[in-house]
UniProtKB/TrEMBL annotation:
Protein name: Alpha-1,4 glucan phosphorylase
N6-(pyridoxal phosphate)lysine: residues carrying this PTM: K674
E.C. no: 2.4.1.1
Cellular component, GO, one term: cytoplasm
Organism: Thermosipho atlanticus DSM 15807
Xref: CDD domains: GT35_Glycogen_Phosphorylase
Gene3D superfamilies in UniProt: Glycogen Phosphorylase B
Length: 831
């Protein structure tokens, strides 16, 4: 062999797709990386070794992609800053995106190892709560698949979203120690660690030109160490980076204390420093104002901005005027909004630019996405906490605000109300920093996540800003990646689709339109039906295995999976179940198609009402499932620990998708899209993206009920909404609520659910009665469910509608969403 052949051989050793080479690599990793041999290897060892085999096939593409970005002067980089990335598992996802499934399967088969079983070993990277975090993960997949130079930046939480178990039907939280055995997809980059400062004070001084400048001194510094996860594009050799920061103490010991012999105290500060990236806050849309949370926000934002500037300087030196041409930073909600004053601080205090120059650059760099209109989710920080932690940033905010309000008062002389609404600072008994106002003022783009949501932002929540800057506001309706949410989670349906229309849908979801021509094709619909049945059996097996409940795969699988929140109205669903139950108790021959109601939902640990609703649903389940007069027709299953991996089993098995939020409250929803793409029919309100799903699939292929957002608002404003009156007039509703309020579901504890009853009829803790208008929508909800029952009996018609849903939801691919961000906001092209 000459040296060229031998070089080729060496180069191919870890990238080849030859079955024998893959096998050998696998055995080598077991042996050389993990120190195990084939015989004594555990399932974890096998998972880990195979992941390293896959990683070997990623690394070269990763370097090549990054080199390409670096060498190209035209590269404009997108930075997606998000305090959450709800990634889920990566093994199968990476195999699919590399398009090496057959090769890996062959090699594993020859070793007598099932790829599917191995993939199940991987812990979910659960670094997020729900919609916002999962959206970030879908976006990373689309950015890489579209070949856009993109970077995700976030926090490497040691503990992700808690693990949920039920004890006597009550939610209990257990820590999610997902890193305990190591994680094959991350690479620590100690060489890229940066310092992040806290506390201290701002010190004025005169620079060489006699200008007044400031420096941030006497700070307490913490090390931010990046861990990189490769993000593999689908079939395009692109590998982008998700960079997650971990906090580390700069010194393991505080030497002053150490010298004084105070050994324990000497290591205290290490613990404090390293607690920053310890745990994900498990609140979904409830702001609590905790010091550790703002530390998390500033920590990952400061490290990220430093990293972005370092990369810019390596390519373009200190020519900062170029910065916004070469960089854009998307803020995923307000959680990373401190990036705005942080960029200002670095440009002013470290790069010594003038205020005008720095501000020009900053406001051309940032774009802000809002994800909720729930007032309790809006982030505000107490000024005195802010000042203690980030004194220099507070000065910068005062300056931004005063210049901004100066301009505003030229437009609206003497309009105190406008000034009050627009200010970054909220006056009151405790003065606060409003992160949303900061985000709007510091960005060139503000977007909502569905058409309705964006209209609500423009006309209500941020109206005063919209009046000043209408051109800043735009809509970007959310999307989901079909690589995970069809190709990966529903291989049977994927194969059926590909067999008929080819596989271009994997990178162009509008291709699914071609399925419309099978809408009346009996044979196709029959196969389509069989796929759904197989997926239902797969889920039934999971339910039997984990909960010991037998469900009938022939029954309608009616599914609501999402975080538990009053506005999402899981309680409305529960009321409808009680309604059916009472009907059946009244008349055991009452004719309904058997139904299995499936729930999955975590409640924020401090959210009492949400936890009580979980207990209620579990209690209803226990009564119904054990009542032989009804349990042939009704079953209720609450699957614990709903997460990305469970979603991948549950969603493909659904017949009915519950998207029933109070109109005007759900910014977009993304679960709604996943269900429709997998052939479920939606029962939903005219809220968030449901409206756009209806426009796409056609109103005859979706079950819409309830008040519109406008009707909700008008009814609220009129103060005429009186749930107690409905309760008195409507016997059905009365019976349901009385049953909840009795000891029927609570095994004799008649007080247990009284807060639910009270909150619906009279309001609790100063809240409105039936704040989310369940009673107003109940009758129309129940009527739509009756239509669902009727339609399901007509298998052909049902399947046709389900297929038309699949065929017509192509626009909800996150590829479409990302193309819109890229064209309208980021102005980036693929390299
Ligand atoms: C907000 C907060 C507030 C402070 C405490 C911790 C915390 C954690 C997360 C959030 C964000 C909640 C907002 C959110 O997840 N919104 C969801 O975003 C989805 C993606 O745009 C959208 O589909 C859902 O409708 C929306 O509820």
């Amino acid at each position: 062999m000459d040296s060229m052949q031998s070089n080729n051989l060496i180069n191919n050793l870890r990238t080849s797709l030859d079955t024998n080479v893959i096998k050998q690599n696998y055995l080598d990793h077991l042996n050389l990386s993990l120190g195990k041999d084939f015989k004594n290897s555990t399932p974890w060892d096998k998972f880990y070794s195979l992941s390293l085999v896959i990683r070997d096939r990623i690394i070269k593409k990763w370097h090549e992609t990054q080199q390409k970005y670096y060498k190209n002067d035209k590269t404009k980089r997108v930075h997606y800053l998000s305090i959450e990335f709800l990634i889920g598992r990566l093994l199968y996802n990476n195999i699919l995106n590399l398009q090496i499934e057959d090769e890996i399967k062959n090699a594993m088969n020859e070793l007598n190892i099932s790829l599917e079983e191995l993939a199940e070993i991987e812990p979910d990277a659960g670094l997020g709560n729900g919609g916002l975090g999962r959206l970030a993960a879908c976006f990373l997949d689309s950015i890489a698949t579209l070949g856009i130079p993109g970077y995700g930046y976030g926090l490497r939480y040691e503990y992700g979203i808690f693990k949920q178990i039920f004890e006597d039907g009550f939610q209990k939280e257990l820590p999610d120690d997902w890193l305990k055995n190591g994680y094959p997809w991350e690479i620590e980059r100690k060489d890229r660690a940066v310092k992040v400062k806290f506390y201290g004070r701002s010190e004025p001084y005169k620079d060489n030109n006699g200008h007044l400048r400031f420096r941030w001194v006497d700070t307490y510094d913490i090390l931010a160490v990046p861990y990189d996860i490769p993000i593999v594009g689908y079939g395009n050799n692109v590998v982008n980076t998700l960079r997650l920061w971990s906090s580390k103490s700069i010194n393991d010991f505080d030497f002053d204390n150490f010298q004084k012999g105070n050994y324990i105290k000497a290591s205290e500060s290490k613990i404090i420093s390293e607690s920053i990236s310890k745990v994900l806050y498990p609140n979904d849309a409830f702001y609590a104002g905790r010091e550790l949370r703002i530390k998390q926000e500033y920590f990952f934002v400061s490290a990220s901005i430093q990293d972005i500037i370092r990369r810019f300087k390596a390519q373009f030196g200190t020519n900062f005027k170029l910065f916004p041409e070469k960089n854009v930073i998307q803020l995923n909600d307000t959680h990373p909004a401190l990036a705005i004053p942080e960029l200002m601080r670095i440009l002013l205090d470290e790069e010594l630019l003038s205020w005008e120059e720095a501000w020009e650059i900053t406001k051309k760099t940032f774009a802000y996405t809002n994800h909720t209109v729930m007032p309790e989710a809006l982030e505000k920080w107490e000024v005195h906490l802010f000042e203690k932690l980030l004194p220099r940033h507070l000065e910068i905010l005062y300056e931004i605000n005063s210049r901004f309000l100066n301009n505003v008062s030229k437009f609206y002389p003497n309009d105190i109300n406008k000034i009050r609404n627009l200010s970054i600072f909220e006056e009151g008994s405790v003065k606060q920093v409003r992160m949303a106002n900061l985000s709007i003022i510091g960005s060139f783009s503000v977007n909502g996540v569905s058409k309705l949501h964006t209209e609500i932002l423009k006309n209500k929540v941020f109206k005063d800003f919209y009046d000043i800057w209408p051109e800043k506001f735009n809509n970007k309706t959310n999307g989901i990646t079909q690589r995970r949410w069809l190709l990966q989670c529903n291989p049977e349906l994927s194969n059926l689709i590909t067999k008929h229309i080819g596989n271009k849908w994997i990178i162009d979801l509008d291709e699914l339109k071609k399925l419309e021509k099978y809408a009346d094709d009996k044979e196709f619909l029959n196969n389509f039906h069989n796929v759904k049945q197989k997926n239902k059996i797969r889920l039934s097996n999971y339910i039997y295995k984990t909960l010991n409940i037998k469900v009938d795969p022939e029954s309608i699988f009616d599914v609501q999976v999402k975080r538990l929140h009053e506005y999402k109205r899981q309680l409305l669903n529960a009321m409808h179940i009680i309604y059916l139950y009472l009907k059946l108790k009244d008349d055991p021959n009452y004719d309904i198609v058997p139904r299995t109601f499936i729930f999955g939902a975590k409640a924020a640990p401090g959210y009492k009402m949400a936890k009580l609703i979980i207990k209620l649903i579990n209690s209803i389940a226990e009564v119904i499932n054990n009542d032989t007069t009804v349990n042939k027709k009704l079953k209720v299953v609450f699957i614990p620990n709903y997460n990305v991996s469970l979603a991948e089993i549950i969603i493909p098995a659904a017949n009915v998708s519950e998207q029933i939020s109070t109109a005007g409250k759900e910014a977009s929803g993304t679960g709604n899209m996943k269900f429709a793409l997998n052939g479920a029919l939606t029962i939903g309100t005219l809220d968030g993206a449901n409206i756009e799903i209806k426009e796409c699939v056609g109103e005859e292929n979706i079950f819409i009920f309830g008040l519109t957002a406008e009707q909700v608002q008008r009814l609220k404003e009129s103060r005429l909404y009186n749930p107690y009156e409905i309760y008195l007039k409507n016997e059905t509703i009365r019976k349901i609520l009385d049953l909840i309020n009795s000891d029927y579901f609570s095994k004799g504890n008649s007080e247990l659910f009284s807060d639910i009853f009270q909150s619906l009829l009279f309001g609790i803790n100063g809240g409105y009665p039936d704040e989310y208008m369940l009673l107003a929508d109940f009758d129309s909800y129940k009527t739509k469910h009756k239509e669902i029952d009727k339609l399901y009996r007509q298998t052909f018609k049902w399947n046709k509608k389900a297929l038309l849903n699949v065929a017509r939801v192509g626009m909800f691919s996150s590829d479409r969403t990302i193309k819109e961000y890229a064209e309208d906001i980021w102005k980036v092209e693929k390299i």
